[in-house]
Amino acid sequence: MSGMRQIVFNLTALTSVGMGGWYLGKFSEQRRYSKDNETSVLSATHIRSMPGLPLFGTVSAAIPLTPAESDHDMGSKVSSTVTRVSQIMKFGFPGLDHVRSYEDFVLSYDRRNRVAHWVFEHLTKERLQYNKEADRSKCEFKPDQSIHPFFRSENTDYKGSGYDRGHLAAAGNHRVNQKHVEQTFFLTNMAPQVGKGFNRDSWNRLEKHVRKLTNVYKDVYVCTGPLYLPKRETDGKKYVRYEVIGANHVAVPTHFYKVIVGETNDGKLEMEAFVMPNTPIDDNAPLTNFQVPPDSIERAAGLLFFDKISRNKLSKVNGKNTS
User: Fold this and answer.
1) Residue 150: C-alpha distances to residues 9, 41, 114, 147, 247 (Å)
2) Which of 39, 54, 107, 291 could make an SS bond with 116 (beta carbons 3.0 to 4.6 A apart)?
3) What's the pTM value of the predicted model, to 2 decimals?
């Protein structure tokens, strides 16, 4: 029996040491990360972390860096943010990888590529009305401090790269107040885009097309994101090749997509889906040239768009009656 007691004692001691080491490691890691934050240039700013949605661990909120507010203000802000997110995501999440909820749009961040998987917006004619208080010229591109520094993109990554910091949620879609416009300038909402011929031209035309849809539909829901598509090389094999820029190796997508659902006053739902190559495009090319079946984007992106809508409930897809 004494031998058995000795074995039990040894196992207990080893377990205690192991658990103690694990807790010590976690404590050290947390302290190291908090010290990193304390030494940053934004060390004097209070960073708030709040649940953006009543979901599980991959979902959190990206909240602008502002002075601390009272508990009452915080409570009302959480309530309004959650309500707005539920409006934006009415028809489902394409995926739940590192979701960030801002005040007027929601995105899923790809920590490996330093570019969002997708960005979701909800537009109405009223929300797009001109507002002299919302001025994009006052906005600055800035990294999102809610992202761990290992996985952030920085302005220096884009400098000298030859690419624009291209909006996924367009600044022109968020005119309700200045804060909403400013949030579209977080680098989490940016992707490297060819400037002349794409971001400043054909992609801009597509963004304007989406805004014009609010004259047709009472609600417009739009999901935007990058694609990294394969290309057949000279050896006859297909490869996925894309450039990375900057010290943080920000991925340069080969293509970009938009999947749009418009809801009419009588509740009918219509969908449009576009894919554009991240290259200069003839500005005279009609946007219909870039319409594709929505499921082709889903397969390429590994996402399911508007999964709360049964496809047989769509009255039109890319302008064609589904019946």
Assistant:
1) 42, 16, 10, 8, 11
2) 107
3) 0.78
